[in-house]
Write a structure and sequence with these properties.
Length: 254
C-alpha cells in the first residue's frame, strides 16, 4: 500500500459573492491540513470576487459560460490534486474539514467520492439545525432512491481525480436549470462508489430558505436534473445496471 500523501485541490465556483468568498478563504487558510491548491472559478462576477481571491493568493480561473454547472466543471478541469474537494463561496468549513476528508478517503479506498451535510451559519438561531436537517434531509430522501446510492452535496464533497476523469466527458456543463452536484452524482456513481460521512464539518448560508420562490426553484431544478437522465437512469433500470456492475467488479477482484 502506498504511503504517499495525497495532494488536495479545493474548487470554489463564485459569482458576485465577494464578502462570503473572503470569509470562506479565511476558513480554508486556517485548516489543520492546508490545501495544496485552491481554485476560485469566477463566473462573470461584477463585484470584487476575483480581486478577493487574488489577494488571498489563490488561483483564479475565469469561466465565460454562465451557470454553476459550467463553473464547477471548469474548476475540476483545473484541479491538479489527487483529491478534488468542492464547496461554495458562502460556506465556512470547520478547521478540520480537509483533514477529515483525507481520513475518510483513507478509511474507504473503495469510494470514488465522499459527501457530507451542513448546518446553517445564519438564519433563526433556534431553528437552524432542524431547518438544515429538513432542507438536506429532503434532498437526500428524494435523490438517494433515484440514484441508487447517496447523492453529492455541492457545498461539502470530495472526489478522487479518477472519478472526475471518468465523468468529465458526460456531465452537463451548461445551463441554469439543473443541479450540477446531482448531475455529477449520476455520472460518478456509474463507476465509483459514493459514501456519506457525518463528520465533515461545514456551515452554509441560510439563503436557500429565505424565500419560498427560491426553495421551489431549487426543487424544480432537482426534478429537472433527475428527469434529464431518464429513461436510461429510470430508477429500477439504473438499480439493476449498478447491481450488475458491482457484481462484475467483485468477481474481477475475487
Amino acid at each position: 500500500m502506498s504511503t504517499t500523501r495525497p495532494t488536495v485541490s479545493v474548487v470554489i465556483p463564485v459569482k458576485d459573492d465577494a464578502l462570503e468568498l473572503a470569509r470562506c478563504l479565511r476558513a480554508l487558510r486556517d485548516q489543520t491540513r492546508p490545501a495544496d491548491q485552491i481554485v476560485v472559478v469566477d463566473n462573470g462576477s461584477r463585484d470584487a470576487s476575483a480581486l478577493v481571491a487574488l489577494a488571498a493568493g489563490v488561483e483564479v480561473v475565469p469561466c465565460a459560460t454562465p451557470g454553476i454547472p459550467a463553473a464547477s466543471a471548469r474548476g475540476y478541469d483545473s484541479a491538479r490534486g489527487d483529491l478534488i474537494l468542492r464547496l461554495d463561496a458562502d460556506c465556512i468549513p470547520g478547521r478540520e474539514w480537509i483533514e477529515r476528508m483525507l481520513d475518510t478517503f483513507a478509511r474507504h479506498p473503495d469510494a470514488g467520492a465522499i459527501t457530507g451535510g451542513a448546518d446553517f451559519v445564519d438564519g433563526p438561531r433556534v431553528a437552524r439545525r432542524i431547518l438544515a436537517w429538513l432542507y438536506l434531509g429532503g434532498y437526500f430522501a428524494v435523490t438517494w432512491p433515484a440514484l441508487g446510492h447517496p447523492p453529492l452535496f455541492g457545498s461539502n464533497f470530495g472526489m478522487r481525480r479518477e472519478a472526475w476523469t471518468d465523468a468529465a466527458a458526460s456531465v452537463h456543463r451548461a445551463g441554469f436549470d439543473i443541479h450540477d452536484d446531482l448531475d455529477l452524482a449520476f455520472h460518478v456513481g456509474e463507476r465509483h462508489g459514493i459514501r456519506f460521512a457525518r463528520d465533515l464539518p461545514m456551515t452554509i448560508s441560510f439563503r436557500p430558505m429565505r424565500s419560498l420562490s427560491a426553495l421551489l426553484l431549487r426543487h424544480a431544478r432537482g426534478f429537472r436534473t433527475v428527469f434529464l437522465h431518464w429513461p436510461e437512469d429510470f430508477p429500477p433500470r439504473r438499480w439493476m445496471r449498478l447491481r450488475s456492475t458491482r457484481r462484475a467488479g467483485l468477481s474481477l477482484s475475487a
